[in-house]
Amino acid sequence: MKPVKWGIISTANIGVAKVIPGMLKSKDIEIVAISSRRRKTAEEWAGKLGIPKAYGSYEEMLADPEIEAVYNPLPNHLHVPLTLAAAKAGKHVLCEKPIAITAKEAIELRKVKNVHVAEAFMVRHAAQWIAARDLVRKKKIGEVRAIQVMFAYFNRDPKNVRNMKDIGGGGLLDIGCYPITVSRFIFNAEPTRVTATFDRDPKFGTDRLAGGLADFGEGRHLSFTVSTQLAPYQRVNIMGTKGRIEIEIPFNAPPDRPNRYFLQGMEMNQGEWTELPVSDQYQLQGEAFGRIVRGRQKPVWGVEDAIQNMRILDALFRSERSGKWEKP
Prior knowledge:
The chain is α/β, with parallel strands linked by helices. It has helices spanning 13-23, 39-49, 58-62, 79-88, 103-106, 127-137, 171-187, 281-293, 303-322, and strands spanning 4-9, 29-35, 53-55, 69-72, 92-96, 117-120, 144-154, 193-200, 207-217, 220-227, 229-240, 243-247, 260-264, 271-275. Strands 8-9-10-7-11-12-13-14 form an eight-stranded mixed β-sheet, covered by helices on one side. It has a six-stranded parallel β-sheet with strand order 3-2-1-4-5-6, with helices on both faces. It is globular and about 55 Å long.
């Protein structure tokens, strides 16, 4: 496949630390430019990462005719505006999660025509998640009834965008979107109702602890806890009538060593860890998006999927206020 030529909007940490290094591993991806609001910053990162062009504004980079697709890792409140600007410039857009702050904002992306827009949930391309979904589809653990997710880190930096309420900070939008996405991925269904409980930081006003239930009908549910102020930890259990699957590092999967999952039958804690070949989920995500750009693969998760994810997150926030179950 002819490599897709990419431009990177901003020097956000998720991009320069994880996504770009993963993409640079691929022969199907050519990163030709990176942009920042400060040209010096763009030039510094271009030099470190070996990217040919550096731009001192996003608009300048979007005007570059060589660029076919862009990756948008800006803070949450800028996801929709810059994605729309990139699409208007004729660029395909891979936008960091969450694609918006609300479903109403995400619906603005329906205006996009003739280019592909997708939300950057790399887990959908990660080897351990594809393996888990295949095991579930083959009924290796019977009928899946429950998915349990724990995801936490500790960050009380007031300058960090995750602690800025007005621009979409807080745990649910930052990492609570993952439990929603992976449960939809595994159940291959949508929740009919959700409920949640929150604890907010008294200074930032952001949700520093969020827990929720999502009812998927037919006796199936997701339960999750996410936090921005707890000990760093992540684990997922997929519970079936004949066994369980435990994904060891489900979200920040290491790109330099095998990812593992545990398959248990009906004997308590007896089972086997399986190591998968070393892979980089960000490389796989970029390659999959490139195949869509080249017409080699049909889009699976686009704007409508991203809107649905936001509707579920909106309903969880409404549950905080109402204290009741809410429908997405």
